[in-house]
Amino acid sequence: MDVEKKKHNNKKNVLIAKISVLILFILFSLSTWIPVTERLIVDHEKVDGGSVRFALITDLHSCYYGKDQKWLLNRIDKESPDIVMLGGDFFDDVLDEGNAKITAEYLVSKYPCYYVTGNHEFWSRRQDEMKAYLKGIGVHVLEGNCETVEINGCLIDICGVDDPTDMTDKQWKEQLDRAYAQTDDSHIRVLLTHRPERVDTYEKYDFDLIMAGHAHAGQLFIPFVDKGLFAPDQGLMAEYVNGLYGLPNGSLMEVSRGLGRESTPLPRYFNQPEVVIIELE
To answer: Which whole-number Å values give the CA distances from 233 to 165, 239, 275, in the listed order?
Structure first.
């Protein structure tokens, strides 16, 4: 009888252990859906006296962030950015555009907004329609051009290029050349691009700050190693997936983990969706 009771208790303990592991797994998976704000402060010699605060929003994929997107928009408002940068895959090629449009219309009503396409806009085959919509509500759509703005006494050249999905490398580099040719060396030169992996190209230019997304932090971000398990166009153990990188030419490149959630079939691990705040001072 004692033996049978012991076996029964062992089975019960194993079942409890399995349920506990399952609950922890579910809670951990859900926690990686909670957005966070990453704040960076960058000292820059071209910032004289004032400061410039950018909010970088990438890879939204039209995902849901509460009624009227308030979970996300309140987080951005709390930071009071001077400029909002929309770094591609703002729309998705599968999910409905509603959440993206709510987000864009709110942000452009409060902040100067700059946008470049990502690969999913091109995969939708509706990239021109999406660009036209954003231009219509007042978003600055960058497609191989540069716009100069003055924020708190700082002159900033904001350049942007389309995602290269539907272009040859030559055509994409022509966009980059055209945008860079419009910059001034005495201004802060910023490049908004969807792709972080094209470092060999970016380091041939003298951008002060490059902002990108696309990599989703490798979906499973590997702590301590600071690499992603797998990122598009980088493969396994991807290097440029999360955070600030110093390029060989002295440029800084910030790669956002992005905000995609239900748009991907794979959960995020060690990889919460994020809003990135970059303050140049």
So the answer is: 11, 11, 23
**56 token code pair:** 């970088």
Q: In what order do the strands lie in the sheet with 154-160?
A: 145-151, 154-160, 188-192, 209-212, 252-255, 243-246
Short-list 245, 242, 244, CA closest to 271: 242
| Backbone torsions φ then ψ of 279, nearest 5 degrees | -110, 120
Cα distance between residue 281 and residue 278, in whole Å: 10
Q: Per the structure block, which two tokens stand in for 156?
A: 């900033």
Q: Which helix (H) or strand (E) holds 276?
A: strand 274-280
Per-residue pLDDT of the chain in tens (281 residues, 90 and over written 9): 565 655 555 555 555 555 544 444 444 455 567 899 999 999 888 887 789 999 999 999 999 999 999 999 999 999 999 999 999 999 999 999 999 999 999 999 999 999 999 999 999 999 999 999 999 999 999 999 999 999 999 999 999 999 999 999 999 999 999 999 999 999 999 999 999 999 999 999 999 999 999 999 888 888 888 899 999 999 999 999 999 999 999 999 999 999 999 888 777 888 999 999 999 99
Which residue in 80, 128, 76, 141 sits closest to 102, CA to CA?
76
Q: Tokens representing 263?
A: 């748009």
Name, in order, each residue with C-beta under 8 angstroms of 257's C-beta and a sequence gap of 6 or more.
215, 216, 217, 221, 241, 242, 268, 271, 272, 273, 274
Inter-helix orientation angle 98-110/127-137, to 10°: 30
Complete edge-to-edge strand list for the sheet that includes strand 221-222: 221-222, 227-231, 235-238
User: Contact 37/75 with Cβ under 8 angstroms?
Assistant: yes
Q: Which residues pair with 145 in a beta bridge?
A: 160
Cβ within 8 Å of residue 153, ≥6 positions away = 48, 49, 50
